[in-house]
Amino acid sequence: MTQDELFKKLVAHCKEYGFIFPSSEIYDGLGAVYDYGQNGVELKNNIKRYWWDSMVKLHENIVGIDAAIFMHPRTWEASGHVSAFNDPLIDNKDSKKRYRADVLIEEWIAKQDEKIEKEVEKARKRFGESFDEEKYRATSPRVAETAARRDEVHARFAEAMNANDLGGLRQIILDCEIACPISGTRNWTEVRQFNLMFSTQMGSTAEGANTIYLRPETAQGIFVNFLNVQKTGRMKLPFGIAQIGKAFRNEIVARQFIFRMREFEQMEMQFFVRPGEEMKWWNQWKETRMAWHRALGFGDDQYRFHDHEKLAHYANAATDIEYNFPFGFKEVEGIHSRTDFDLGNHQKFSGKKMQYFDPETGESYVPYVVETSIGVDRMVLQVLSAAYREEQLENGESRVVLAFPPALAPVKVAVMPLVKKDGLPDVAQRIIDQLKYDFNVVYDEKDSIGKRYRRQDAVGTPFCVTVDHQTLEDGTVTVRHRDTMQQERVAIDDLYRMVDDEVSYRKLFRKLNL
Fold first, then answer.
1. Which residues partner with 464 through β-bridges?
2. Which PANTHER family does the protein's record reference (predicted)?
C-alpha cells in the first residue's frame, strides 16, 4: 500500500467513525472547511488540554488569555499583515488550476532529495555490510550531479524568496521543467502576490461601516494585551502569554485534508524576554517543544527541525518542527524569534508606550519575543496519521486500530454487557456511573462482543470492560486492552485506579522534565 493510498484510507476512516466531516456536506461541501464529529472534537479538545496544561500549569511564569477575533484594523497595519501577508501564486493555463509557486519549487527540491536517498539505498543493497555511505555520497557521480543541481536551485530559491522576486520564482519553475500535476503541461502564467486575509464590514449601516479583518493569527491579541497582563499579573521578565483560538486565511491552495484550511485553530505562546537574550530562549524553546511532541511516543525519528530559508518580516530566527506525514515531512509547529517588531510597531501605530520597566536594571525597554505556534488541526492530523494502523491477526482476521496515547483518546472506556438480559445491563450502567465524572465512557450492547471490540479499536478506545455472568458472582469484569488485545479479570472496585493510571496526562507530563 502506497502512502497516498494510506492517506486516502485515513481520510475515509475519519468520516466513517465520527472524527471529521466535510462542512455543509448536504450542500456539496465548502472547499477546505471541515467539521469535527463526536470523536474528533474529543480528540481535538484532549490535544488542546495537553498543550494548555503543559504551558500554563507546568510553567509558573506563563499565563493564558482569550482575545477577541475582531480587532481594530490598525492592528493589522502595525503587524505588517495588510502589506506583507501574501502568497506567491501561479496558474496553469491548461488546467486552470492555481498553485503556490514556492510550494511547487519546494516539492521539486524534495524530489531531488528522494532521488539521492534512492541511489544510496540501491548501493546499500548492492554492497551489503561493506557499504560505506559517507564515501558513496562523496564519490558517486549520479549523487553528486543530483546534489549539485538541487543545491543550485535551492540557493536561487532562497535568494528569490528573500528578495520577493516573483519573476525569479517563475524562472526557476520553467528551468526545472516543473509541470502541472493535473494537465502535465508547463504552460504557466506570471507569479502574482495574493493577500490571505478575509475582510468584512462592521457598522450599523453600509455607508458608515468600517472594513475589519478576521484575524489571520492569534498572536496579535497577545501583543496588544501585553501590558494589561503584565501589570495585573505583576509579571516579571521572562514570562509568557498563551492562547488557543480561531484564525482565518483565504488559502487559495488549500489541500491535504485538514492540513491547510481556511478556518483553523492555533495554540500560540509568546514569551517576552530581555533584548539580547532572545537566542538563548529560542534555542531552549526549540528543545522544550520537540520534547512535547516526542513524549507522545510516535517515534523520535519521525520529527525533525527545518530552519526557514526566508525569514518573516518580524523574525531574526525561525525553525519548524516537522512530522513525517503520509505525504512527507511537513510543519506542525513553528518557533520564531520575533525581536521587538510587534510590540515596537504597536507602540508606534497606537501612540501608547509598550515598554517594560525592569526593576533589576532600572531601565524601561520594549521586550523581545520568542513565539511557539501550533496549528491545532495539523496536530490532530498528525496524531491521527501516527495512530492509524492496519493489523493482520494470528487467526487470519484483520483490524484497524487507532493507537492513540491513552490521554488523547476520545473515549477512555467502553462498557459492554455480554448479553442484554439477566441484569447485566444494570451492572454495566452502575460501572458507567462510577467512571463518567472523570472519564469519557460509552455503553455498547449491539452486535457480538468481537464486533464491539473492533468498533472500539477503530476509534482508539484504550479499555473495553465486559460485564458477564461471573460479574454477578464475584464482582469482577473482563478488561480488554486495545494495543495488546490481552484480557484480564479485574474487580469493579479497582477499575477507576486502573483507568486513571493509564489515561492521566501525568504520564505525558513526566516525560517533559519541566
1. 414, 480
2. DNA POLYMERASE SUBUNIT GAMMA-2, MITOCHONDRIAL, GLYCYL-TRNA SYNTHETASE/DNA POLYMERASE SUBUNIT GAMMA-2
259 annotated ligand binder: yes
Last residue of a domain, one of 358, 391, 424: 391
Q: Tell me whether strands 328-339 and 317-325 are parallel, antiparallel or unpaired.
A: antiparallel
Question: Is 415 annotated as belonging to a binding site?
Answer: no
Q: Annotated binding residue at 328?
A: no
Answer yes or no: is 250 a known binding residue.
Answer: yes
With a threshold of 0.70, does the pTM exceed it? yes
261 carries a ligand binding annotation = yes
Range of the domain at 228: 1-69+215-391
Count other C-beta atoms under 10 Å from residue 361's C-beta.
9
Determine if residue 251 is labeled as part of a ligand binding site: yes
| pLDDT tens figures, 2-24 | 777 888 899 999 999 999 999 99
The three cell numbers of residue 276 are 539580547
DSSP labels, 481-493: ETTT--EEEEEGG
CATH code of the domain covering residue 126: 3.30.40.230
Query: Has residue 77 been placed in a domain?
Result: no
Asked if residue 332 belongs to a known ligand binding site, the reply is: yes
The reply to whether 377 sits in an annotated binding site is yes
498 is in an annotated binding site: no
| 267 marked among binding-site residues | yes
Cβ neighbors of 69 (< 8 A, separation 6 or more) are 214, 215, 245, 246
Say which DSSP state 25 is in.
G
- For the ranges 76-80, 248-252, 368-372, which has the lowest average pLDDT? 248-252
264 is in an annotated binding site: yes
Q: For residue 207, say whether it is annotated as part of any ligand binding site.
A: no
What pLDDT does residue 209 have?
62
Q: Establish if 44 belongs to a structural domain.
A: yes
Q: What is the pLDDT of residues 248-304, one digit of tens each?
A: 988 766 668 888 888 999 999 999 999 999 999 999 999 999 999 999 999 999 999
- Rounded Cα distance between 277 and 406, Å, is 38
100 is in an annotated binding site: yes
Q: What is the pLDDT of residues 289-348, one digit of tens each?
A: 999 999 999 999 999 999 887 666 677 889 999 999 988 889 999 999 999 999 999 999
Q: Is 268 annotated as a binding residue?
A: yes
Q: Are residues 344 and 400 in the same domain?
A: no
User: What's the structural domain count of the chain?
Assistant: 3
217 marked as binding residue? yes
